[in-house]
Amino acid sequence: MTVTNVLRNLIASGTFLHLPSVYDPLSARQVQQAGFEATYVGGYVSGAIKTISEPLLTLTEQVNIASEVAKSVSIPVLADAGAGFGEPLHAMRTVREFVKAGIAGIHIEDQLFPKRAHYHKYQVHAIPEQDFTTKIEFSCKARDEVDPNFLIIARTDTCREMGLKEASQRINAAGEVGADMGLIFPRTNEETEEAPKVCNIPLVYVQSRGNRDGRPLFSRQQLEAFGYAMCIDAQVVIAASFVAQRDMLKELRETGDYKALTPQQMVIARQEIEDIIDLNTHYEIEAATVET
Length: 292
Known about the structure:
By secondary structure, this protein is an alpha/beta fold. It has helices spanning 3-12, 25-33, 43-49, 59-72, 88-100, 129-146, 159-162, 164-176, 189-198, 220-226, 236-255, 263-276, 279-289; strands at residues 17-20, 39-41, 77-80, 105-109, 151-155, 181-183, 203-207, 230-233.
């Protein structure tokens, strides 16, 4: 069964998908090991790990990161496809490239392309609704040609400046041309609860931990109760990893040693890393071939 089939079956069964955003195979395997049914590669984390920021990411860079993640796990991987990396023609190629990379679905947004750095200051650079709808329509045509089970999520950022009415109108228009799901950015608790009621296709919520524009945060259980189908946890993995590494390096530099983890805890951590990359299987193959 393909990953797109697996994802579609999860959705059809009513499974609420909580998607921590990962950026490499090791973090993806940790997500899978923790029991999550699927994971996600976001533009924010991809731009951050390459230290160039999301607006400077190329299609090739994002596909390569997502592909490495997808090859390392058996659960479906979804990915951030930005603004489709261009016009409808380019968005069609974007769909094909992610399908070839083994990704189960993507979201495409109504931002300008190329994206601007001020996007991270919550500036909305929305293209006209008709242009967005056309881009989604042709992305869905590409999906239907290469893999009808590939998930297309239409994303709009307009709720931030123009309100829920404008955002839901765009999502509903995208649904009419083939989008499977929608993604908006409600600004308040009330908008968050109302959005699934006024949108005609299932919605994905983006949990933007650390956001500076006051967007509310919710538990997985709350979002499921509101009627959302998925939650992307956009910064939780990279932020937690960043803080842990920053504090470790500070201690190591200042004291010349690292004692936040005991020697025994380090033995356990090292063994867990070796287990998650399946090092024992490598030993077994070598023992049967070259190590006598």
